[in-house]
Specification:
The complex is a heterodimer. Chain A is of the alpha/beta class. Chain A is 37% helix and 17% strand. In chain A, strands 1, 2, 3, 4, 5, 6, 7, 8, 9, 10, 11 and 12 form a twelve-stranded mixed sheet that branches. The chains are: A alpha/beta, B alpha/beta.
């Protein structure tokens, strides 16, 4: 029954270090300038902060903003952009029936409180009692609400009124991929008409850098394109909010919504990351869409994160596919759970403009074919999350 | 070949062919069921870490499974694995290490824990303030010894162990998570994406900080003495939930697939209903509309009416707020009929198993139908006069039951209700 109905992307909300909205991101990608990055605040780690954001525009109540930590504000903001783009923001009848799947991590820490506790604990004999006492006095009750993974979705319900249903997926890049996979599958099978799907990441903070440094994958030192970060590679964490509104073709047409693109079933799978596994998984996934590709008008948006050997493995597989390739991570950094949705959104820009953006690094191969109407979007996560989907232009009248 | 079985809406019928349970009452279904229907409490004084300075010092811990210094991730994985093995063995599906369908897992939201942070701080041995830059210096060395932190790690290990197909999905809908895992399995089978799915909810994440977080929201009971009396859903003197650990696993299967291989059908997942609440981060809309809608959506999805429900497994947390709102919800939806529907809370005995709760209680609801016996709501000494429900006070009861509902409500406006029934003739 898979793929029984067409699924359209009718809204995109994107905020990255390049700016807010698809157009701001697209114009930077066109120029091909190096992106804004910060290699001082968390030296030696390099991260991609957001430009200043006026959160009031999407989260009008200061009381709501105060109840959120940055990852939630970024996500609620991007979700609002997507709902506006789809023309459903502020329309209770539609929002009431809008389902939601959010990919999230959560767990944002109070760095000052943690530091004070760790420092104070050194002199303490009764560490357990000290920890209890300090946690009871130092933790802000509202911080817990910023740590619960499903409270990004909860805040989207509160601020934007999306209340059809709400699910939150956990687990790095794979969660971001599977959120879109299941949102697409539900609509294709008639289990949903309208779904908001995406995620948010706040990478400019010590507690997540600590998580990535445990695996030794956070990028240190000078900026370089994703493809060219040396034998170990590295992931430059970014701040990112990316949401899509997915909709059945019938529902979109009935309300006169514009299609930014049509999305195929998402192919995602797990492998054990033994040598050759990434290529084998991507090859199998490519097999699910290969016969639909019009090579003269197609390209790849790669989700390579910059870690080796995974990035080299993806590069090898993409050479085998043979379509022109552009990676976004070089420009927008890595937003983990949000990355796949961000890349699907950028794919919509590519088919809207009919061309690729500027190459950056040795893996960005091939020149832009004329009038691109199909974009293959890949994901290769920092430890799992191999996936691929096809976004294509919808031509009215023969869709 | 017989025509495929379909429900009233023409969809494949989702059967349950295996159940596994771990709670503070014990490991495995038979032990749990005996104690649950015997009115035994699993709530005890916390022994895993010092409790000085804490307002709440009790919990429903899985002491039968916990071994020295297991982390929440390790312990949660362990209870998930035990529940999963019981369920898969009962269903007899697939082969060892080859489960023929996807995994939907509700794990606790994992984090680097204080025990890890303290170990890293010791390794870093800095002279001045110990901050995150110090932890960064030793992070890789720490990970080499203790493993690196990943949100999807429990799902990865379980997928490997059970040999489930595809990308394992880990999800969180707060206190409805376990029910959401089941819901994702129902949906996948109805779509025809698979003929079987393994749904697991697991949470064994009691730490000082997890306790303090709920404490600061005034969500926990502080009536620590005696521990087994603290959880008293629907009572007038209820004062919060008791944090607990546990896991449950269900093998979901297309009914045709189950029958074709001669599997024993333990029950049918007839439908689910969900509705999000946009009122507040931790509180329900005072008019109860989202809860009411989720109950009604569940009945509609199952194609049944209020008169068709014989038992309700309550979310029944024992917080003043939840029990009041749940009463409002079921009274509104079931009206007069509610007088004849027993509604009991397993949490009176096992506490609130958080992300596992929806799965644990769905498992117990299925067992309630199988055994035709309703577990009680214990500690019901002082009824709340504003709650006019048959909560099956204190003592289990035999009843003729054909179909039941299991409710799950969570922070973040999560409301999800399941309708389960005995196998159709």
């Amino acid at each position: 029954m898979r793929g029984r109905r067409e699924v359209w992307i009718t809204g995109v909300g994107l905020i990255t270090c390049l700016g807010e909205g698809l157009e701001a991101n697209w114009s930077h990608l066109q120029r091909g300038d190096p992106p804004p990055y910060d290699d001082k605040s968390f030296a030696p780690y390099l991260v991609h902060p957001l430009p200043p954001v006026n959160f009031d525009q999407q989260i009008p109540k200061k009381s709501d903003q105060r109840q959120m930590e940055p990852w939630q504000r970024i996500g609620v903001y991007a979700a609002g952009l997507a709902l506006s783009d789809a023309g459903i923001a502020g329309k209770p009848d539609l929002l009431d029936a809008t389902d939601m799947i959010v990919a999230a991590a959560g767990g944002e820490r109070d760095i000052a409180a943690d530091t004070a506790i760790l420092t104070g604990m050194r002199k303490m004999a009764e560490r357990g009692a000290f920890l209890n006492e300090r946690l009871m006095s130092d933790l802000r009750p509202t911080l817990f609400l910023a740590q619960l993974p499903n409270l990004l979705a909860g805040n989207i319900s509160i601020v934007h009124g999306v209340v059809g249903s709400s699910r939150t997926f956990l687990g790095e890049e794979a969660a971001g991929v599977d959120a879109v996979r299941i949102a697409q599958a539900r609509i294709a099978a008639g289990q949903s008409e309208l779904t908001l799907v995406g995620g948010a990441y706040h990478g400019t903070r010590w507690d997540v850098l600590l998580v990535f440094e445990q695996s030794g994958v956070a990028l240190k030192g000078a900026f370089a394109p994703v493809w060219d970060r040396g034998p170990q590679g590295g992931i430059a964490l970014g701040n990112m909010g990316a949401f899509l509104v997915l909709e059945s073709r019938e529902h979109a047409q009935a309300r006169g919504a514009r299609a930014r693109g049509r999305i195929s079933p998402v192919a995602s799978d797990r492998n054990k990351r033994q040598p050759g596994d990434i290529e084998a998984t991507l090859r199998r996934e490519w097999g699910t869409i290969a016969d639909q590709i019009d090579r003269a008008h197609a390209a790849v948006i790669s989700g390579a994160a910059g870690l080796q050997p995974a990035t080299a493995a993806e590069h090898a597989m993409l050479r085998e596919i043979g379509l022109p390739v552009r990676n976004t991570g070089t420009y927008i950094g890595h937003g983990v759970e949000a990355q796949f949705a961000a890349n699907l959104g950028i794919a919509c820009s590519v088919i809207e403009h009919g061309k690729l953006f500027a190459p950056a690094g040795t893996g960005d191969t091939g020149s832009s074919p004329p009038d691109i109407s199909q974009v293959v979007v890949t994901s290769v996560g920092n430890w799992r999350g191999e996936a691929l989907a096809l976004v294509e232009r919808v031509v009215w009248g023969r869709a | 070949m017989a025509a495929p079985m379909r429900d009233k809406q023409g969809r494949p019928i989702v059967a349950v062919t295996g159940i596994g349970v771990v709670t503070s009452l014990g490991v495995g279904k038979s032990d749990n069921w005996a104690k649950l229907t015997g009115g035994v409490s699993g709530i005890r004084r916390i022994s895993r870490f010092p409790t000085e300075g804490l307002r709440t010092t009790i919990a429903g811990t899985v002491n039968d499974v916990y071994r020295d210094r297991m982390s929440p991730a390790e312990l949660s994985e362990r209870v998930a694995l035990l529940a999963g093995e019981e369920a898969v063995a009962e269903s007899g599906i697939g082969a060892k290490g080859r489960f023929p369908g996807p995994l939907y897992l509700a794990p606790p939201p994992l984090e680097i824990e204080w025990s890890d942070r303290i170990k890293m701080a010791e390794m870093a041995a800095s002279d001045a303030d110990t901050g995150y830059p110090d932890l960064m210096r030793v992070a890789r060395e720490f990970a080499a010894r203790h493993g690196a932190f990943k949100f999807g790690i429990i799902g990865e290990h379980l997928a490997e162990h059970f040999g489930t197909e595809g990308s394992p999905v880990s999800l969180n809908t707060a206190c409805a998570s376990g029910a959401s895992a089941i819901q994702l399995g129902i949906e996948a089978i109805r779509r025809g994406d698979c003929q079987a799915a393994l749904a697991i909810g697991a949470d064994a994440s009691l730490t000082p900080e997890s306790l303090v977080r709920f404490s600061l929201l005034s969500a926990l009971s502080t009536q620590n003495d005696p521990p087994e009396r603290a959880s008293k859903p629907f009572s007038k003197n209820r004062d919060g939930f008791v944090l607990a650990e546990g896991a449950a696993a269900l093998v979901l299967e297309d009914l045709d697939h189950a029958r074709a291989r001669g599997a024993r059908v333990l029950g049918i997942l007839e439908g689910y209903g969900e509705k999000s609440d946009s009122f507040h981060r931790t509180r329900s809309s005072p008019d109860g509309k989202p809860i009411i809608a989720s109950l009604r959506n569940a009945l509609a999805d199952a194609g049944v009416g209020p008169q068709d429900i014989d038992y309700i497994n309550a979310h029944g947390t024992s917080t003043p707020e939840n029990d009041k709102m749940e009463h409002l919800g079921v009274s509104t939806v079931f009206g007069e009929r509610m007088r004849g529907i027993p509604i009991s809370s397993n949490k009176s005995m096992i506490g609130h198993t958080l992300t596992a709760a929806g799965a644990v209680e769905a498992a117990f609801t299925l067992m309630t139908l199988q055994h035709q016996r309703v577990p009680p709501t214990i500690n019901h000494a002082i009824p709340d006069p504003t709650i006019t429900l048959d909560v099956v006070p204190n003592v289990a009861r035999n009843a003729k039951l054909r179909r039941a509902m299991s409710n799950s409500f969570g922070f973040g406006g999560q409301n999800l209700c399941l309708v389960v029934a005995l196998e159709p003739a």
